[in-house]
Specification:
By secondary structure, this protein is an alpha/beta fold. Helices cover 36% and strands 17% of the residues. The chain contains seven helices and seven strands. It has a seven-stranded mixed beta sheet, sandwiched between helices. Helix 1 crosses helix 2, helix 4 packs across helix 5 and helix 5 packs across helix 7.
């Protein structure tokens, strides 16, 4: 995973013209979740390339299949049965966080089909509470234009057309439901500011696209 990231990450950042800010907000050691908005298939590759530390990430199970699936797995993907309570995948994330890893997640649960920022699902707070780790909110911009739906690969972009903005760290929540809800709302608010997307007051529809 670290070799693949070192070999491919810088080239990807240059190809899509990515500007990265706030790297100093990612802790230099210990488990941490990176929670980002999600508009493009580019997002998990870009977040991994921009992270100052090697990063694992959650992805729907179908993305682990075929040649591209092998790339995803080498890049550190943890397959999840999206739309169901995949407790095994969540346990794997918590174990990875407790081992001191960085894990990237997209709390909307799927790519935004409308360009809006949808409500975050509860798994983010559950994982943070169970592992006792903080979350760094991340705003991704320009990724839908760099790799739109239907295109086979990202297109080259001018410098600054794509942005990765790491926000202020949010400490781990307490384990009770009320604390987790407040934590989820806070992380959502910070991602909103970082990405600038209009809000949708509902959860994103989950499909297998």
């Amino acid at each position: 995973m670290r070799v693949a990231r070192a070999a491919l990450g810088p080239a990807l950042l240059r190809w899509v013209g990515a500007e990265v800010t706030g790297l100093d907000r990612v802790p230099g050691h210990g488990g941490v979740l990176l929670a980002a908005n999600h508009r493009s298939f580019l997002d998990h590759f870009l977040l991994s390339a921009a992270s100052p530390r090697a990063m694992r990430f959650l992805g729907k199970e179908s993305l682990s299949q075929g040649p591209m699936g092998r790339v995803n797995m080498v890049m550190g993907m943890i397959p999840v049965d999206r739309g169901h309570a995949d407790l095994a995948a969540l346990d794997m994330v918590v174990a990875s966080l407790c081992a001191g890893d960085v894990v990237g997640v997209f709390p909307e649960g799927t790519r935004s089909p409308t360009g809006e920022l949808f409500r975050f699902r509860s798994g983010l707070a559950r994982m943070a509470a169970a592992a006792g780790v903080p979350v760094v909110p991340v705003g991704l911009t320009g990724t839908a234009e760099a790799w739109p739906v239907g295109r086979r690969a990202p297109r080259p972009r001018r410098v600054g057309a794509t942005q990765v903005r790491f926000g202020e760290l949010v400490p781990a929540p307490a384990g009770d439901a009320r604390a987790r809800r407040a934590f989820t709302a806070l992380v959502h608010d910070r991602v909103e500011v970082l990405c600038g997307q209009p809000l949708a007051d509902r959860f994103a529809p989950v499909s297998d696209d």
